[in-house]
Structures are given as structure tokens and as C-alpha cells.
Amino acid sequence: ENLVIATVNNGDMIRMQGLTQDFTDKTGHTVEWVTLEENVLRQRVTTDIAAKGGSFDIMTIGMYETPIWGANGWLVPLDDFSAEYDVDDILPAMRGGLSHDGTLYAAPFYGESSMIMYRTDLMEAAGLEMPTAPTWQFIREAAAAMTDRDADINGICLRGKAGWGEGGAFITVTANSFGARWFDEEWNAQFDQPEWKEALTFFTEMMSESGPTGYATNGFNENLNLFQQGKCGMWIDATVAASFVTNPNDSTVADSVGFALAPNAEGVEKRANWLWAWALAIPAGTQKEDAAKEFIEWATSKEYIELVAANEGWANVPPGARTSLYENPNYKEVPFAQMTLDSILAADPSNPTVKPVPYVGIQFAAIPEFAGIATEVSQEFSAVYAGQQTVEEALAKAQALTNDAMEAAGYR
Amino acid sequence: MATQHSRSAARLMMAPAVVLLLGWMLVPLIMTLTFSFKQYLPLRGGDLGWVGFDNYVRFVSSSAFWPSVVATLTIVGGVLIITVVLGILLAILLNQPMWGQGIVRILVIAPFFVMPTVSALVWKNMFMDPVNGLFAHLWKFFGAEPVAWLSEASMPSIVMIVSWQWLPFATLILLTAIQSLDSEQLEAAEMDGAPPIKRFGYIILPHLGRAITIVILIQTIFLLAVFAEIFVTTGGAFGTRTLTYLIYQRVLESQNVGLGSAGGVYAIILANIVAIFLMRIVGKNLDA
Amino acid sequence: MGQIKLNQVTKSFGETQVIPPLDLTIEDGEFTVFVGPSGCGKSTLLRLIAGLEDITSGHIEIDGADATNVPPAKRGLAMVFQSYALYPHMSVRKNIAFPMKMAGVPEDEQKRRIEGAAKALNLTDYLDRKPGQLSGGQRQRVAIGRSIVREPSAFLFDEPLSNLDAALRVGMRLEISELHERLKTTMIYVTHDQVEAMTMADKIVVLRAGFIEQVGSPLDLYHAPRNEFVAGFIGSPKMNLIKGPEAAKHNAATIGIRPEHTDVSMTEGMWEGRVGVAEHLGSDTFIHVHDTGLGDMITVRITGDIQVKHGDPIFLTPQLDKLHKFNDQGLRID
Amino acid sequence: MGQIKLNQVTKSFGETQVIPPLDLTIEDGEFTVFVGPSGCGKSTLLRLIAGLEDITSGHIEIDGADATNVPPAKRGLAMVFQSYALYPHMSVRKNIAFPMKMAGVPEDEQKRRIEGAAKALNLTDYLDRKPGQLSGGQRQRVAIGRSIVREPSAFLFDEPLSNLDAALRVGMRLEISELHERLKTTMIYVTHDQVEAMTMADKIVVLRAGFIEQVGSPLDLYHAPRNEFVAGFIGSPKMNLIKGPEAAKHNAATIGIRPEHTDVSMTEGMWEGRVGVAEHLGSDTFIHVHDTGLGDMITVRITGDIQVKHGDPIFLTPQLDKLHKFNDQGLRID
Amino acid sequence: MARAVTQQRKLINTALAWGIGLLIFFPILWTILTSFKTEATAIADPPVFLAFDWTLENYEAVMERSNYAKFLWNSIIIAGGSTILGIIVAVPAAWSMAFVPSKRTKDILLWMLSTKMLPAVGVLYPIYLIFINLGILDSRVGLVIVLMLMNLPIIVWMLYTYFREIPGEILEAARMDGASLKEEILYVLTPMAIPGIASTVLLNFILAWNEAFWTLNLTAANAAPLTAFIASYSSPEGLFFAKLSAASTMAIAPILILGWFSQKQLVSGLTFGAVK
Ligand SMILES: Nc1ncnc2c1ncn2[C@@H]1O[C@H](COP(=O)(O)OP(=O)(O)OP(=O)(O)O)[C@@H](O)[C@H]1O
Ligand SMILES: Nc1ncnc2c1ncn2[C@@H]1O[C@H](COP(=O)(O)OP(=O)(O)OP(=O)(O)O)[C@@H](O)[C@H]1O
Ligand SMILES: [Mg+2]
Ligand SMILES: [Mg+2]
Predict the structure, then answer these.
(1) Chain D residues touching residue C219 (CB < 8 angstroms)
(2) Which residues belong to any copy of the ABC transmembrane type-1 domain (chain B) (predicted)?
């Protein structure tokens, strides 16, 4: 059979496309890819599944969509994997985030948290040493110390780009690490609380001291470029970035990158790291359920990891999905492996903030309205980063629009 | 030339186009209208019943509404002004005798062939990127601080990108119009003692009136719907959220089809206000 | 005020010389008509005088001063174009005011002159219309009005009547002639219609391929065309040109006889032929006679009416004193 | 073959009646010219006959059969348009072949007829050119050729010569007349040029505002115009129409005298006036005489040449037997 | 009558026009150049213009990643199909408007144009649902229909203004010559309007080719055209300027080449009746 798979255009997924011949050889099924940029992909698959379009047999979705769609009954439950697939090998945090009511609805292709990547050489030159679990205050000082505008070196590069999955995700985990939360237990927006103001102010000030020009439009990719070109002292972002910045083919600083846990504000127990997985799911109602399951089993299996390792080396295997990977001696040699695992383990989607919240998810709240709200909120924040409004104005607008949207959706 | 026979034939031959367009307009319009009076949330199970004018009220009372109208009009107005003014100047220049006129014309037309997505990507990454963009290099070369175009000057940047795409169209139409100007009129004005500037103001510009209205009409239709450029560059941040983009956010990002549909109805109303305004001018000019 | 002198003027477009070296003097107050077939360079010559084209070599003098490099607006000439070249978006009043506005003539003076011109040209009722709302003849008058108010030292007309229909053309022709009588300003008038040339000109300049074939008063040209070309060009219907033995009888390569200088009889005459088409105008009858053995068809004009039918035999006798003789280079023999 | 009869035909565009009830019979083989000022309904009438417009009321008969509701293609008529209406993308041959192709005429018959028409119209050398490569006169001939091959029962011409220049017009006029002599097919010819009407027609229909003012042969109209309108319309230069006491002397409201029927003297005559513009054509001289006290300017024609200057006193004497008299409704008094 | 101009004026015009032309064209030129650079040279500071090692690796990478030919083919089919279909529907309509005008002709025309003002995003769900019901989601047929409807008003308008300049007498001549309505349109009107039709086809082909909203949202694996192809290049991880440039070049090259070869028709036909 011929499977149509919607997927995102990141490196791991592209790599998988190159290896599908292996799947076809094994099962006789062919695969057609619809590769889209992340935002386009989300919009596309959401429309399709909500309208029951049936354009795709497999969709690449994330931790945000899976529980919501699973609850709606839009996904085929993935509860009958073969024994050799070893479902229990999937990292519990991932499995939890991709399940609804204990049933797995999407199999993680890879998972990630976020962590600090920093330039050991610059750190040394600044006369500082990175603790394994730094605080925001340290990060800010270190960033200021590493900044050298003349040499085009920014102490720290962070996401400021509007969009819930971009700057929105980052400011949310930052706020978490300052003790803030999106909603109280009655679904009231919390942007009027001091923690948010503290977090946003801190972030904005630090970035204007030590961040790159125009960081208000920087997302993952822009920062990756900057870091690879040696223009950043530190970068806090997805753990998967580690393999890119340490890859000497692309990165000019490959041999001087260190890793540390994402920071927290002094005295706050939550750290600024998230949890995310790109996972494969089958929309309910597809005619090709069995073949689709076969594919998912192939793509998220241990064998696939080995296949990649054999072709591209261990540093390039999809990380963050399986416990066994981190027990593999070959993989342990990869410099960022342990820190990735530690970061993932430090994230707890069902208990993401200091104060209690009614939602699941660390850098998002797994409710259908969140993407829309968070995108607009992050746009307000980006306007702060670009110097177009103050922190107070942005928070006030965020508060208003969030409450408004929640009301529209019937939460309040 | 109109016999009974040809008139009925004409009606028959109009029919396919009219029926198709009527369907294309009415079917989605009726569905949009229906949705707009409903709580329609695909992610919460779709149609959740009638809610009267709630969506309409909510859409306008949202803090994003008026800024989006302003953003829409700014983009439409800004691009129109730039393309028409530069288009006129370029058309005049291209109408002069020169060597390699055909090639220059090709160069000037080229942006029109570029997909909006591609043009937005190219501008955003290769020119306006504050670190690696060509502008940043240029600014640094002259010792200036690179500008973060898409955040610090978001609206002008988008207007610029869109203008770049539409300038060829304006230039082409205006060029054809200028070429149709009877050169004897210009010579008459010259004999009458009008220097070049006055010849432009008194003869060329009035002659272009009709062409300018056409440019405005056609471009407005397309500019009201500008989407890809914003989606790719700012994602609606920094005050570049147009009405179209706001609807997009409501429908696709927030998955609130009811609210978005109400927005769609507002957009239709806005478009029609603009249209009526335009038709007033253009309609008159089209008669001649 | 209004003498124009061309001195060895030439004009080439790229490689092709359209006007070979040419000398011409137009006297003050004279009504000069340039006439010639299409493409012979009439418009080009006029535009050289106007300054709308640069002269390739030679000199132009206006009122004794070298004007070769003076821009058109400064030459003090006014031009009326074939297409009228009215400004379509301005009212008649504004059209007429335009040159004065450009020259900075005071408002009330403008007004005075506009009214004067409008009255002279019968345009008073139309001053507030746009050119699009006028008939062809009215447009032509506006174009003339626009020229008049500048009080130029000479008017240049480039086929101003060729877009009008026959009846109107006759009327406008008269109006322009009367205008000249009144203003006594130099006028240069381009046409390819020899009737216009004959009826309007003080002096006709016949051009062919940029060369001046003959310069003279209309009647000079009618009575003594310098060569076959002018002979054939001036006069309507055309002069009958006869070659061969009949011409040899008169010691010429070609003889010419005008239709109005041939006597007709049904019974006897010098040449015999058969009636082709007879055109009865009431005032005159034109008979086209075939099969005379003289080569082409011969056309004759009879004043008043004569009853002839297609195919009737007919006899023609040329008035010998009105015969024109040309040598084998086509030049007149006297 | 070719009799056309209009029976109480009317035509309205919306509210405005352009053709009031009208009766007219055109006999087989006749060359009929519709003439009248612009906008009088000539084209409309022709198009009604052609079937390009629907008749509002009334009947049209062609060869005795009711053709009111017959579509244009079936009426067996051919039309030659003012703009020639050639198919610009087809060669001359294809243009001429088109009606035959539509009618399904066999290939070799098509070929034969095309060659016949081309020869008759002097188009043989141009058969493979596109219309754009032809001169105005040649285009007109192609348009005629396209009509001829259909062997229609009547030809309809709508101002076929108005786009040509004066010299060509004369030539084409002759060609069409000769064609009619040869084919003897009914022709209906629309023009607003009275010279064309006079020279070509067997029968002239003078129209004004949709009404038929007079029907008759050219010379009938010239010699006995039924009313002032026809009198002024037929003849060139126009008949001089004089009202007031001078007319009253002849027991008429208006008298008319043609320019060619007025004798001129420098010394004595019936009316005295002053020379305005004198147009010297060589063959004739037209003198426009002012200040006669008869109202308008009087135009006279003198055969040959006469030397007069602007402002000279001049005496005119009408030939009394050629005087036309009209009553106060403008109708002829005999 | 065009006025002869001095060589010096001409020289200044030429320099100015070429300068501005190159400036306008520069983004495209730069994209094309960048597509032949390595990723590192693509972002080099100072930028390099021509003196770099030309490489095809970006094109190879793009070709390897996606089935360019398929996207291209879909683009051609969709843009071409919608344009041709549009012309077929529009020619009779434009004929009626141009040659049998009535009081409502202008209203109908403006109404047609106004249908283009419906914001596409607002009707995405309705159209999506209709497409699912008709079973034409992710099919070229569906897109051909949508794009045809999108562009139909413009096609009708362009043809209408073009036809209006064709003298009605020629069609009447054809009628007198015995042509039926069909023959009149087929043998006389259409060939005469070829330049106008050509530029209409061209303009609408371009508009359809570049249409990104519907083509992206209504396609998946089968019918995706080049707009979808480019949507997978907008931000891959790591340095991507060169690959983006290669993909962009591939997406716009066909239409750019087509446009350049036929710019005469495009220019001459783009009068929209505006200019006479
Ligand atoms: N701008 C130009 N460039 C090149 N050749 C030209 C130009 N203008 C005129 N000519 C040529 O010069 C010759 C004379 O043209 P001109 O217009 O003066 O003729 P004309 O006597 O006015 O003809 P017509 O009676 O048709 O107006 C023609 O052969 C024409 O082709
Ligand atoms: N389609 C039409 N709709 C309304 N009025 C029309 C139409 N066609 C012609 N007319 C009017 O009918 C009258 C007669 O027009 P027609 O074209 O027959 O005049 P004509 O005698 O041919 O004039 P011309 O000599 O200018 O060609 C005019 O007043 C004209 O305005
Ligand atoms: Mg000329
Ligand atoms: Mg007419």
C-alpha cells in the first residue's frame, strides 16, 4: 500500500525520508511524503483532521496535539504494538505526554527538552565556570561578561520570535522558572501576577544587555545559525540542537561547546526546560491503518535507531524517545547524551509550575485554545522585545486577550 | 448590433460564467454566514449550536480588531502609493529611447513572476536578516548599526516587500498607458511653452488617470488578501496583523471557526466599503 | 514679424536623409502651403521649422535671427496639429488658456483674449465643454483658438482638416482663409490635398521625396507646371497625360491636357473613344472616355449637363493653346 | 433577383424612434444611394435591410418574399462596411473565400470565383497578403471581392469610401460605378457625401431624421429639389438660399440660386457686394461675396479664372430661369 | 510621430534605466547566485558576488529531498488547466459583454470582480468541507476548479476589454457572410483576439502558478504544486540560505523563463482597456 505521511521539515525527519527504502524493502509498502514547515504543517493537519479530510495516513504531530486529538477520538490508539517493539522502552515522560487516559495515541519519533549550550572557550576567557545547574542570575552575569559587540559576540541568544511554539514556548518555561503560571485553577489568566512581570522584565533586560540585534524575530533556526557561526556565548534551546552545534561540518565552534541544565530563578524549584516530542499518529478512519501501524513501528523502533547509527553515526540518531538509547554504550560517548537525558527527566508535564495549574504541559497548556491564545500573547511579548511597548502594556494586553478567549471558549 | 437573436444568445453565453461565480460566491458565503452565528469549534466537536451575534460582538470588541483594520489599510494604502508613484516614474523612464529597452523591461517585470512565499522568504532571510542579511552587511559596511527590519520597521518592511512584487504590474500598465499618449499632445504643450515638469503635471498625469484607477482597483483586490508575506515574515507580530491575518489566527490557530467566520463577514464588509469607494472612481473612469 | 528662411537645411533619421539640402524663404504675412504625396517630408519640414525636430545641418532664420538652436516654445510660432492635440481633460477654456498660463499672462488679459478668440471662432457657447463633447470642426477651431491667443509670428498647420468630412472641410477651409485675411499673419499649411492647396495658398511649395519640385502661386502651378509631377498633382480631375505618337506630333515626349480644356462632341473631333462612366454632378459632368488609342483613359469635364450613356461613341478635341508639353525628363517645354 | 421593399418599417432604440414609419421600394438592378446628414438614420436603415438589427414594426420583402424575420446570412445580401471589416488574421484569399466556406461551396468552385473576383478587382497579386499589408483602396477592393463571390441579390455599402483620401476616393467611386455597370446587381449605397450620391446613383434617397425627404434621380434632385433641405444638401458648392424682401419679389418665402447659375460682373448687375475669399482652382473660381444685403454670404462659381481681390466690389446676376422658389414651409413652388 | 533624440540623452536614459532595472532585479539575481554557493559562502561577510566556487550541491540536496518533477508537473497542470478552463468559460461571457452590451454589463463585471474580495481564509472551512464531500480534496481537478473560479473575474475582464477594441463590424461581416455564432467566435473573434487571449492566458497562468493559499491547503501528496514544495524549505535546521535559494530558484525559474519569453504579449495585452 501507499502511505501518505505529513511531516515536518526538520533534520531527523528528512533523514527518515532518505531511509524509507528500508521500510519498503521490508514490508512492500510505499511511502509518499508531504513535508512542510512546522507552522504550515500544524495548520494543515489540524484542518484536515478536524474536517475529517482524510488526506493523510500518518501525521507528524507533537505533544500538544496528541492528548487533545486523542480525547476527541480522532486518532487510532496505539495499544497493540508487537512485543519486539517494546513499548515500555519509551521514556515515561514522553509516553505520558503522548497519551490520553493512559492510552498511547502517537509514537515518539524523537523527544527533546531544553538545556544550556555554551561556549567553553568564551566562558573561560570571561573567567567564569558554568555550574551544572546554574541560576538565571548567573546566566545574566555570564552573558554580560561574554558579550563583545565589536567582535560580534552576543553573550546569550534566546528565542524572541512570535508564535506559541517559538518565543512563546521559551518565555513560558522562563516564567515557570520564576514561579509564574498561565492559569490559576479556575482558568483565570495570571499575567497580572508579579511573577510574570519579573520574568518578562528579567528576560527583556538581559537580552538588551547581551542579546543579538533583532532577537525579537529570532527563533530556533536563527539562533542555531548564530551559534554555529560563533556569534553566541550561550544558547538555551532544544536538546536536539546539541547534535548540530557539535557537528564540525556545519558548526565553526563544534569543539568548544559545553552543556548545562536550563536555569531557574534563585529559590524557585522549577527549571526553565520544556518537554516536547515529534510523534507519529494515525488519524481515525484511515483505510490503511495496518500499514500505517507497520510504518510507525518501523520508524520509532530500536532497529531504526540502529539503522541511522549505521548510516550516519550515533550522534545523528533521533534522541529522547527511548530509555534503551541512553543505556547504549555507543551512545553514551556522545557528549550531550547525558545532559539531554537529565533535562528530559527534569521535566514534568503534569506538574509544570510551582503553583498548581488545571492543565497538562510545560511550555503549553494542552487545551485546544492554547495555540491561538499563546501565539497572540507571544506577539505582544515580541513587541516588547522590539521596543514597541512596555512590559506592563504587554502583560495587560495578554491578560485581557487570554481571558477574553477563554471566555469565548466557555471556560469561564 | 443587437437583434433579438443575438441578445438571447448573449444571455446564454453569459450563463456559465455567471452561474459558476454565483456558486463560488454564494455557497461559501452562506456557509460562512451560518458558521458566524454558531459556536463552531472543530477541536471541541464542531458545531456547538447557535449563539446569535456573539461572535460578531466578540470579534469587534477584541483589542486586535481595530489595529488589524488599520494595518490592512496601511498595507493597501502604502503599497498603492509606492507602486503608483514609482510606477509612473519608471514608466516614464522606460518610455524614453534607450539601448536594451527590452532587457531592462524584463528586469523590471521579473518580480511579478516570483511567488509571494518565495519573495517573502528571500527578503526576510537574505536581505532583512539583522545578522546575515545583505542589508545588515551593507549597514555594517557603512558603520551603522544593522536594523532589525522585521521587528523594528515591520510595517515599512512588509510594505516594501509587497511593493516590490507589485511594482512591475503597476509599471507595465502605466507604461502601456503612457505609450498610448498621443505624442502630438506633448508637442503641442511644448509649443505652448510648457517645460517638462508642467508637461508632466498638465498632460501626462491626467492622461494616466484611467490607468492609475485600474492599477488601484486590481491591486486593491489582491492587496486586501495579502497573506503569505505576513505569514512568512512576522507571523502577524509587530503590528502587522491584518484583518485577513486575524481571521487566519481565529480560524486556524485558535480553531474557532465561528469567530473567524464573523471576522470573514467583517472582512467582506470592509472589502466592499473599499470596493464601493473604488468603484465610484473607477466606474466613472471605465465608462469613457 | 514672421519671415522664415531655411538655409541649406537637411534632415536625416539615422542613415536615411529625408530632407536633402533645401532653401526656402517664406515672407511675412504669406500663406504658404506645403503639398505633396504622403511620406514626402512635409510634416518633417514643418516640424523642423517648429523646432520639434533638430536640424541635421543648415540654418533656420526667423525674422532675420538665427533660430536653429532655439527651443520650440521660444520661436514664437504656433502649431495646429492634425489630431488637434487638444488636452482632453481640460475644458475648451482651459485649453485655450494653457499657452497663456504657461507664459504667465495675467488672468484678466487671458480672459480677454479667450473671449476674443472664442467670438472670432464661434466657440463662445462651448467654452465649458471638454473636447470629447465637441464635433470635429469645433475641435479644430479650439486648436486654432489655442494658437491665436499666443499671438504668434507665424502659424503652422499640419493637415488640420484631414480628419474632417468633406462638407466640413470646405467650411473650415474658408474659415482659415478668412482668418488669414483678418490676421495677416504668416501661415504655413501642410496638406496632401491639392484642392486645399489651390484654394488657400498665396504660395504653394510642391514637395516630392524631400525635394522642392516647384514653388509658386496656385495659378502659376496650374498654368505652368514645371514638370509632369506637378502637372499631375495640381488640378482636379487630374490632367490627362498622353505619351507616344500623339505626343510626338507636338514635338514632346509627353503632352498634357486638363479635363476642362477638352471640347466634346458626339459627332466629330480629334480623338474618338467610348464613354465609360459618366458622372453627373448637375453643375458639371465628368466623362471618362475609354478606347481612344491614347493609352490610358481620358477624363473630360463638361460644364452643365450632357446626356451620354455607357458605351456611346464620343469625340474629343483638346484646346491646343492649353496643351502642356514635357520632354523626356518630364520637364516642361515652353 | 434583387428587389427590396420596405413596408411601414420603423425602428426605435429604447424610447427614441430613429426611423418613423417608412415605405420604400428599391428595384432590381438599381443603384440606390441613401444620403443625408450624420445621424439621420442611413446606417440604421441599411442594417435593418441587412438584418443586423431587428425591425420594431413593419415588413421587409426581398424579391417578393417576406424577409422580416430571416437572419442576415439567409437574406442573400452582401454588405461592405465603412471600416472594410476584413478579417485581419486571414490572407486576402481566405477573406474572400470565407463566405463561400460558410456556405459550403466546393473547393474548386471557390477557387474559380476567387480568381474571377481577384481579376475583376485587380487583386491577383495580393491574394496571399494579409489585410494589414494592403493600402486603403486595396482593402476596400478586398471587401468588395468578399461580397461579390457570394453572388448576392443585392450589395449594401455603408460609407465604403469615407476612410480613403480624396484622390483615392475618386478612383474607387469610379470602380464601384463600373462594377455596377458590369454586374447590374441591385446596390444600396450609404453616404453623407452628396458628390458621391450624385455621381453614382440611379436613384437617390435623401433622409433627414429618419424621414425620406425626396426620392429621385440625381438630376431630378439637382434641378427640382422638393424642399429647402434637399436644395441645400444637393450640389456643391451649396445653393445660396435667400429670404426676405428679395424672395418676396419672386412671390416666395425663400429663393435659391446655385453658385454656378449666377453671372458675375465687376461693373454692373442685380446685386452688389464685396469679395470675401476667392478660391482659385485653376479650372474654376469660387467667390464668396459679402455685404450683398441679402443676408448670408453668397457663393458664386466662375468657370476658368478671374482676377479678384479681397474687398473688391462685385456685381451678381442670377439666371432667373434657374431660380428655385420655396414657400414658408420650405416646400418647392413651381 | 516619435521625436528623434540626441545620443547623449539616450546614454543617460540607458544608464539610469539599467541601474534601476538591475536594482529591482537584484533580489532575484542574488537568489540565483546564492543557490550556487556553499552555505558558508552564502552568509559570508563581506558578501561575495561572483568570485566564489560555484557548486551544484544545493540543487543536488534539493533534488534528493523532494520529487521536484512531480511538483513541477502539478504546477503546470493546475495553472495551465485552470487557465484554459477559465478561458473556455470566459470567452463566451466576454463576447456577450463586449458585443451585446446592456445596461447591466458594467454591474455584472464589477460584481464579478467583487467576488475576488471574499477573504480566502474566511471560507477555508466551507470549501474544505465541500471538497471532502465531493471527494476532490488533494486532486488536481479540485485545484483547477478553484483557481479557475478565483481567476475567472480577471479573465473575463481582460477578455472583455480586449474584445471591446475589436470592431463589431467585423463580427457583423461574418454574420452577413453566413457564419453561425459558433463559427463567428471560432473563426473570426478568437483568432483576432489571439494577442489578447495570449496575454490573458499568461497573466492568469502566473497568478495561478503563484497562488499559495488554496494550493497549499487543499493538497497533500497527489496534487501539491511548487508552492507546497517551497513550503518545506522555509526553515530547515542549520544554515540554509543556499538551499533555500536553490529551492526558490527552482520554484520560480519555469515561470520566470516563460514570462521572459512572452513578455511582449504580456505587456501588449495588459492594457485592461485602461489605456486607450
Ligand atoms: N522619427 C522618424 N524616424 C525615422 N523616419 C521618419 C521619422 N519621421 C518621419 N520619418 C520618415 O520621413 C519621411 C517623411 O515623413 P513625413 O511625416 O514628413 O511625411 P509627410 O509628407 O508628412 O507624409 P504624410 O502626408 O503621410 O503626413 C517618411 O519616409 C517617414 O517614414
Ligand atoms: N444602438 C443604438 N442605440 C441607440 N441609438 C442608436 C443606436 N444606433 C444608432 N442610434 C441612433 O440612431 C440615429 C441614427 O444613427 P445612424 O448610425 O443610422 O446614423 P447615420 O445616418 O448612419 O449617421 P452617420 O452618417 O454618422 O453614419 C442616431 O441618432 C444614433 O444616435
Ligand atoms: Mg505628415
Ligand atoms: Mg452611419
Answers:
(1) 280, 282, 305
(2) 69-278
